[in-house]
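User: Could you write out the 3D structure of this protein bound to fe (iii) ion? I've included everything you need below.
Assistant: Certainly. Input first, then the structure.
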Amino acid sequence: MSARNQRLVKVVDALVKDLHEFVLDHRVTEEELRRAMDFLTEVGKNDEMPGLADAFAMTTVADNVTHEEANRSATPSNIEGPFYLADAPSLSPPYRVGRPDEAGDPLVFRGRILDGPSGRPVPTALVDLWQADAVGNYDIQDPGAPAFNLRGRLTARDGTFELRTVVPGAYEIPKNGAVGRLLKQIGRHAFRPRHIHFKISADGWQPLTTQIYFAGDQWIESDSIGAAKPGLVAPLNDREGVLVSE
Ligand code: BEZ
Ligand code: FE
């Protein structure tokens, strides 16, 4: 048997054992099992499996397992989420994203790209970023938004970059799907704290996919997908009407 099949045998055996224990521990009835299967069938038909894995924080746990080693000595990784688009436009300095009249609180975001173990600046790094607008919608959810709105790729030099944008709004998992309905039934809200996504790459370093959150956010302690981590929270300071995060 190939090494790959052995791994499959091992995880399927373990999963089945855990599922049996779950049914026994919680005295799950035939009727409850049937309803669970109907739910999963609906999730599959609606293409909501990734959303369910997110809502159960499975994606975040798998991300932590995958990047456990690197996360010990660098900015922690964080899930990519469903809204990444490859081929966002390359930006020219001074870097800014969003429409010229983008609604929302103006934000100056200053980032530092450092070598994890030594803390030395990385000379040149490519930063691919994307975020929701001020009301929490990504461009691909909003038919009125220009293509690639609030997205872009920039070059960080000598370990720093500055980006002008607006403070993103809190994203809410759609309530009309099977996953949203389940969250409502179990009394959970569907919000994610405000965040900006980053994919950072540099020759000679491991790439990093992560998100940066803002201190004081209403949803930071109860992210609906359990992805917000303390090591990814940046301050948001009001400097004469402009919010600055660095
Ligand atoms: C997000 O990063 O915006 C996101 C991640 C997972 C599910 C939904 C949204
Ligand atoms: Fe997001």
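Residues 81, 83, 171, 195, 197 surround fe (iii) ion (ligand 2) (CB under 6 Å).
User: Perfect, thank you.
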